[in-house]
Amino acid sequence: MELNRSEEGVGPRVVLVHGFTQTLRSWRQVADRLTADHRVVSVDLPGHGGSGELRGDLTTTAAALGTAGGRATYVGYSMGGRVVLRLALDRPDLVERMVLIGATAGIDSPSDRKARRVADERLASAIEQDGVPRFLVRWLSQPIFAGLSVNEEDRQARLTNSAPGLAASLRDSGTGTMDPPWWDELRRIRCPTRIVAGERDAKFTDLGRRMAGLIADADLVVVAGVGHAAQLEAPEAVAELVRDFMRYRSGEAPS
Known about the structure:
Blueprint: E1 5-8, E2 13-17, H1 28-31, E3 39-43, H2 58-69, E4 72-77, H3 79-90, E5 95-101, H4 110-130, H5 132-140, H6 152-159, H7 163-173, E6 193-198, H8 202-214, E7 218-223, H9 230-233, H10 235-246
Parallel strand pairs: 2-3, 2-4, 4-5, 5-6, 6-7
Antiparallel strand pairs: 1-3
Helix pairs in contact: 2-3, 4-5, 4-7
């Protein structure tokens, strides 16, 4: 499986991995702030953008991401964070560092995981029945995105996704598919890791704190005044925290 990707800039390699309903274009405001001194690779996940015809679960997608990105610093948001985390677990040789935004290592309770899969199946069916434009209105009206003002470029990028692609992505790579969850695996991770959460996203701030406590070399950064999609709500701040983290070297603490 070969993921669609774009590359620009010169310097240390950083790979940007989007979330559900987004595309590589959703990173535009962050990428523009990094390309002056970084080689920025942005990818489309299966079911999204230029990878819309591709299908794959988190493990298969992580392998394809490693092929597309090579050895680099990986930055993943939400679903993209899950893929990056799987890559770090399966191919630690490729992940020099990672930044996880609004991510999780899974749902602890078996019954809750099953409930999430059932809920995601309902959402997938709704996408297939209602189409992408109508579904996006529903998706972005969730409280978790209350602070997000979707600009026209991002909206148009999301509208390029197909209903079959998004539905398959939910079924293949939703949080409920992390069964069993990956919490017990986090102690294997040795690469420097930065966990990012929005101040207004209490759930993922708590999850981020838990993840940072289990990964040997990790910190948690809470971005003030934003919710779940920190990279869209505060792209300048997120670009700077990525740049700052990429300056990290052994024996030197990130600021």
